[in-house]
Amino acid sequence: MALTTNQRAPIPPAHHDPAPTPICYGHRGARGHAPENTLLAFDLAFDLGADGIECDAQLSADGRLVIIHDGTVNRTTNARGAVRDLRFDALRQLDAGRGQRIPTLDETLALVGARGGLLNLELKAESDAEALAVAAAVAARLAALPADDPLRERIIASSFSLPAVEDIKQRLPWLRIGALYGGRAWTRQAMIERALALGAEAIHPHPRILTPETVSEAHAVGLRVNVWTANRWATIHQLITWEVDGVFSDFPERVIIARRLRESAEEWAATPGE
Question: Which residues are catalytic?
Answer without folding.
Answer: 27, 69
